[in-house]
Amino acid sequence: MSNALPRPVTAVILVAAGSGERLGHGMPKAAVPLGGEPILMHALRGVVASGVSSQVCIVLPAGADGLHELLEEFREELADGGPVLTLVDGGATRAESVRAGLGGLMEGIEAVLVHDAARALTPEYVFHRVVDSLAAGAVAVIPAVPVVDTVKTVASTSGEDAAIAPELVTGTAPREELRSVQTPQGFRLSTLHDAHRAASRFDEAQAAAVTDDAMLVELLGVPVHAVHGSTQSLKITTPLDLIIAEGLLEGPLGIRWVEG
Ligand SMILES: Nc1ccn([C@@H]2O[C@H](COP(=O)(O)OP(=O)(O)OP(=O)(O)O)[C@@H](O)[C@H]2O)c(=O)n1
Ligand SMILES: C[C@](O)(CO)[C@H](O)COP(=O)(O)O
After folding, report:
1. Most CB within 10 Å of its CB: which of 161, 162, 197, 248?
2. Predicted model pTM
3. Is the Cβ atom of 180 under 6 angstroms away from ligand 1?
4. 101-156 tens-digit pLDDT
């Protein structure tokens, strides 16, 4: 007999509407090829393979006709089963894209995982850890990994180039208390709604300071819990990240390598 707790009816909001400026491919990052297929398709296959969700709401960049076509083909592949796929247009910021995704959710959804398409190689077990923690009663759950570098604080140099004007180091952060945070980030639907309703009233400076959904939930005073993520969940942000992701897919270890 299984001891697994009953899981909430879950949707994944897969945010893919970013422009990918730091990657520098002159096209939305979701459409950039990785192992011959757009980054978005790797992320989507990972979400679907995990089997955690009844719906995947994909938040797309404007004018991504090629991605729309691929997603329609994928929807046909899924016709005999799997989650409902919903496509919505994204916003100017990641938080606005998440809100667009919330607007596309079906009736009856109880929990939501917000996942970056840019974390295209996230292992299935990370999705399961997050959903299991929600099933066990957590309201907000994030995957996280220990920080490997020593982290310093520095005095602001008003945007000057640190190579020309060295920054003054003001302290060393306590590394044992620090975590690098990833996605999928899981929430009870009502909690994520409350957090984003509050954020939609932020001024420009407050909105610019928002880097993940858990931060918005923290601001509500609601406890957020962390489960162990995976270094394989790297966010493809820079050209080096894309090289690493290609290596994970095609190198001698292949994507069978999963760090637990
Ligand atoms: N307006 C935005 C901005 C970001 N994202 C998504 O949020 C995730 C994390 O964002 P990031 O990796 O920073 O992507 P970009 O914003 O595309 O990167 P850049 O800042 O280099 O342009 C990505 O899957 C991205 O597509 C989004 O859906 N809508
Ligand atoms: C949500 C996130 O992936 C958690 O690490 C990250 O904060 C996204 O940051 P970005 O500024 O959109 O790169």
Report:
1. 248
2. 0.94
3. no
4. 999 999 999 999 999 999 999 999 999 999 999 999 999 999 999 999 999 999 97
pLDDT of 80 reads 75
Question: What ipTM was estimated for this complex?
Answer: 0.98
Question: For 183-218, how does the pLDDT look when each residue is reduced to its tens digit (9 = 90+)?
Answer: 999 999 999 999 999 999 999 999 999 999 999 999
Distance 30 CA to ligand 1 centre (A): 9
Amino acid at 70: L
Protein residue whose Cα sits closest to atom 5 of ligand 1: 18
Ligand 1 pocket, residue 99 CB under 6 Å: no
Q: Is 90 exposed, middle or buried (0-12, 13-18, 19+ CB in 10 A)?
A: buried
Contact 15, 235 (CB under 8 A): no
- The CATH number corresponding to 10-256 among 3.40.50.10490, 3.40.50.2020, 3.90.550.10, 3.40.50.1820 equals 3.90.550.10
- The CA–CA distances, whole Å, from 29 to 57, 151, 206, 244 equal 18, 28, 25, 16
Element (H, E) at 114: strand 111-116
Domain boundaries, the chain: 10-256
Q: How many CA atoms lie within 13 A of 90 on its CB side?
A: 24
Selection from 183, 213, 211 nearest residue 198 by Cα: 213
* Number of helices followed by number of strands (H, E) in the chain: 8, 12
Question: How high is the pLDDT of residue 250?
Answer: 81
Q: Which amino acid is at 65?
A: D
